[in-house]
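=== Structure Prediction Worksheet ===
Name of assembly: unnamed complex
Input type: mixed (protein and possibly other molecules)
Chain count: two
Listed entries:
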Amino acid sequence: MPLLRDIAREHTDPALEVLRTLLHQPSVAATGEGVAACADLVRGAFEEAGAAVAVHQARDAAPIVIAEFPGEGERTLLFYDHYDVQPADPLGEWTSPPFEPVVRDGRLYARGVADNKGDLVTRLAAVRALKAAQGRLPCRVKFLVEGEEEIGSPNFGSYVRAHADALRSDACIWESGQRDLKERLQITTGIKGICYLDLELHATSRDLHSSLGAIVEGAGNRMAWALASLKDPSTGRVLVDGFYDRVRELSAREIEATRKIPFDEPEFKAHVGVERFIGGATGFDAVMRLLYQPTCTICGLDSGYTGEGSKTVLPRRARAKVDFRLVPDQDPHEIAALVEAHFKKLGIEITASLLGGERAYRTDLDDPFVSLVTEVAGEATGREVKLYPTSPGTGPMYDLGAALGIPVVSVGGSYWGSRAHAPDENIRLADFEETIYMVARVIERFAGRP
Amino acid sequence: MPLLRDIAREHTDPALEVLRTLLHQPSVAATGEGVAACADLVRGAFEEAGAAVAVHQARDAAPIVIAEFPGEGERTLLFYDHYDVQPADPLGEWTSPPFEPVVRDGRLYARGVADNKGDLVTRLAAVRALKAAQGRLPCRVKFLVEGEEEIGSPNFGSYVRAHADALRSDACIWESGQRDLKERLQITTGIKGICYLDLELHATSRDLHSSLGAIVEGAGNRMAWALASLKDPSTGRVLVDGFYDRVRELSAREIEATRKIPFDEPEFKAHVGVERFIGGATGFDAVMRLLYQPTCTICGLDSGYTGEGSKTVLPRRARAKVDFRLVPDQDPHEIAALVEAHFKKLGIEITASLLGGERAYRTDLDDPFVSLVTEVAGEATGREVKLYPTSPGTGPMYDLGAALGIPVVSVGGSYWGSRAHAPDENIRLADFEETIYMVARVIERFAGRP
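=== Predicted Assembly ===
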């Protein structure tokens, strides 16, 4: 019997053809461009591989594709992926057109190739390779592929809750994972939440001449006071009453795992161009903050005259966009209400609209699935593995992990130079092949095979 | 001998023709459109009236027109005006095109008709009427007409200082003055200064994903802290060290004059849409603040993502425009330096560029010229006169009054509905005629005639 590794290698080229087809099809969630057509291609790829496929089409939402492959035994492994991509602009900064996949120097370039179409296809290829090697799968495998991840998965949570029975599984592999600058494989078992607020403030009924500023307060000044009051500049601590009330204490295992996370502080600081982190944190403390502290970041500010030169206007309106990254068990709706109460207490009338709300999620590090994936991924790739109890970023992991009550582990095929969300997004072909085999081995071992 | 009033009336229609010619000629200081051509028209109008005219043309500056009419005696009266106008946009909000003067309902509509071409022409017409009535003027009359008032008169101060001898006069009538909602004539004898700063802050070397906000501070947050620190939200007091050090104490005469200033607080509040003034000021206190307190107003704010929806960006850059209205004897350059020192002390690195700096000016209310103008204007128009020791607005009055050491009084031909700087700018024809006579009487009385 040929080795699984060889069979996985044979599946690489056909899988690349499937991937090219998906990459040729724009599927921009922000604009809706090509989203339905891409969902059709995903459905076709699963059907062609022998899955039972259902497409869930809610009103005004992108289709969700659910595929199920039968297998031996009672265990079910679930893969979460998404077929939508970020907008391709700035177009001028791409070396080749974003929706015309092309190989240069052993790398495949296209929008969405790293995030997340490449991973989707490696997983499908792993299933096909296993079926080819063993006649049938050693366990049931389900795929849940949504089309709104890049816009905050607004319809995903309600879908999962309504279809929890059909999605029932024993563990989930999340969308992606990368090789770091030292070529170590990153495995992540959690994610932060988010409360993204659009703040709007009206100070007067019209724009006024700024000479009235001695008695009439403008919207810009009020907004500056409101925003400045949200966070302590020296410690970075959020000053909204009740903000930290639900923050879950870290487990000893999480702290222990965090001690093993590599962090090249000088390199990081040089990369982002800062000399000092918030609160003067350094080394391990900085990593602890990055992974486990909620944030408050002003993403956008707009008021009055912003052109060249001067205009002496007292602006009637100011707007701000503020992003709070949340940790377990903060609730985005509750945080939005606390922020509103904070402004009210301050005496500044502001309308706060919740543009994005997701909860944080962290898989229990003692769950055997975590050590299984970590161990198998290391063996299959020959790479050192680094376990991250959480990503500092956000995704709908809570919607799935909490609703189904299962461990969720993220591992995948991208690398430090993949440029997700940026021009010249790419993956390395060698990583693509390596990942197909790694995923096939994870499925085998998850099913209890040696 | 016919009455001066009748002669002034006869000069109204020819003066309107001169005004229409000036109004047809755009002269937008902000863009430079038509500025030189308008200066030529102004020069022509003065020459045609028999003045000795000089045009001062500095490099990259709008021409300054200086006209001198000979007269009896030793006294010289100076008029300050400007021929430049504000941009006409938003064009769609004009009932008729801004540079096609048209009369509707006894009002003449055009950009610049109230600010300040109409006043310039009433003054020229007053001189012509006096000459027609009496053969020659009872005193020397000079006109100083600049073309950059609407962009902060950047070249005016240096011109005046270099040509103080040629401009030497005994008193000055400033550009304009209006009839208030109750048709009282406003006379103003001072003006606030300004320090307009463009602030720029860089937090990181690039825009970052906002998930890094736990350890990296963004430009928006830093700017909010910097701006919030400038002013006390409850009292409106500016918190920059040294900001008030040079503020001159008010004279008893100024306070006394201020008590007579009418202020319809409910009407004002309804007009601007506020329920409360800064610091809870009300009535006389609000007027005192409006006229004599320096201000700090955020005119513009810009950072990160300001479009629709959400973008989770940690912005590298933030900008703000901040307008400080100054009172005697604050110095705009010194204030800019104090603000920079304030940010430095706060530990926030900000570049501050001075986009506009003018000093405040107040004429001594005991100067006999103040009572002369007040008295004559009331007699000539039959209106109740209200004396304002200062305007809350700004202009280059200090450049002239301080350099020449003369009293400066502002009175003119506009009214409460003139909409200066706004669409449908207009004056009333009856006010135009009234103002010609009023100015002629001021000249007569200034020259010591009955």
